[in-house]
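Here is the promised in-class demo. Please do not try to memorize the tokens; focus on the logic of going from shape to residues.
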């Protein structure tokens, strides 16, 4: 049995689905179902006794204590987080509450449970913390990619809150001996991605004939990681990673945002042509967001060297699968585009 937090979100739900597709080991899935958490992501597991879904908050210590005592997981895989930079600029308090205070509460609950285990159980237990490359700050064009030894230089309320949670996890290992693992990933994309992030926003707006908003000159560079590759990387670290270590998980795919948008448009031109003309006609440059980091890139050689992991997808194969998934799942998209989502898009982009 493993406990997954945030397992109804984008990356978490993909992880749970992939885990149970490859293993019969049950999952207890704790998710607060905020705007980006969606039970529909897990519809394929309805009636599956291996999946126990619990609607609740990682900040609820009594709830977490009860789940650990009842289910006695051998590992906690911690995805639960507020994760959108733009939202963190508008409302940083929620990011401190979930990412910092929530991780603290979860660590304390895990430490209490771990201390009840016998010697073999304590040695086998893992607390796997899922984090981001954004904690490292921004790279210049000629800088080498982020390695696990890079200093932390977070530049947004989101990345600062994730950096704080990383530091807490490290401290709970060094102070209390809690057996932790941390992974820092690059930008994920793929199925079930909430359509406020770049790639799904471009897909759903293009299909609706709406503008495709691109921040500034669009030359911000990111390393792109197909979500199912990220999930396989987490499984590799959970199975064989060295306790107390950090592993960067990247896709070896550095691309500028504007090139991503043109790639999405070209795939849609091929797979769902618009009689009105090429989708690239909808590209609209808007005012850049404050403090926008120019480049992230991941050096993923450590996980390859120690655990033999490399991504299975290139960007070309992964983005084609992603665009096709959104074309095939229009009902899912319609369901997540609630009034709250429309209000956010209107508020965030109308002034740009």
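The designed amino acids, position by position:
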């Amino acid at each position: 049995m493993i406990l997954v937090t945030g397992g109804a979100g984008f990356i978490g739900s993909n992880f749970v689905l992939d885990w149970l597709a490859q293993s019969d080991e049950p999952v207890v899935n704790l998710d607060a179902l905020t705007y980006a958490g969606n039970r529909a992501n897990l519809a394929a597991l309805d009636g599956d006794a291996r999946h126990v879904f619990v609607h609740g908050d990682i900040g609820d210590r009594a709830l977490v204590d009860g789940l650990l005592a009842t289910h006695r997981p051998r590992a906690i895989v911690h995805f639960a987080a507020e994760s959108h930079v733009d939202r963190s600029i508008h409302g940083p308090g929620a990011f401190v509450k979930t990412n910092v205070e929530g991780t603290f509460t979860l660590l304390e609950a895990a430490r209490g449970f771990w201390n009840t285990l016998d010697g073999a159980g304590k040695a086998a237990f893992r607390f796997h913390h899922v984090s981001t490359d954004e904690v490292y700050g921004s790279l210049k064009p000629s800088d080498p990619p982020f390695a696990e030894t890079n200093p932390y230089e977070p530049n947004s309320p989101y990345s600062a809150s994730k950096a704080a949670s990383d530091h807490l996890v490290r401290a709970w290992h060094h102070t209390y001996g809690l057996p932790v693992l941390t992974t820092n990933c690059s930008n994920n994309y793929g199925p079930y991605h909430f359509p406020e992030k770049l790639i799904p926003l471009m897909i759903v707006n293009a299909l609706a004939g709406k503008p495709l908003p691109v921040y500034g000159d669009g030359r911000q560079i990111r390393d792109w990681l197909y979500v199912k590759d990220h999930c396989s990387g987490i499984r590799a670290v959970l199975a064989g990673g060295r306790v107390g270590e950090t592993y960067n998980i990247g896709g070896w795919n550095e691309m500028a945002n504007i090139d991503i948008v043109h790639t999405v448009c070209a795939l849609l031109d091929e797979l769902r042509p618009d009689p009105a003309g090429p989708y690239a006609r909808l590209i609209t440059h808007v005012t850049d967001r404050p403090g926008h980091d120019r480049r992230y890139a991941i050096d993923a050689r450590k996980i390859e060297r120690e655990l033999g992991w490399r991504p299975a997808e290139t960007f070309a194969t992964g983005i084609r699968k992603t665009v096709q998934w959104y074309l095939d799942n229009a009902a899912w998209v319609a369901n997540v585009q609630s009034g709250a989502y429309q209000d956010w898009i209107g508020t965030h982009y109308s002034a740009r």
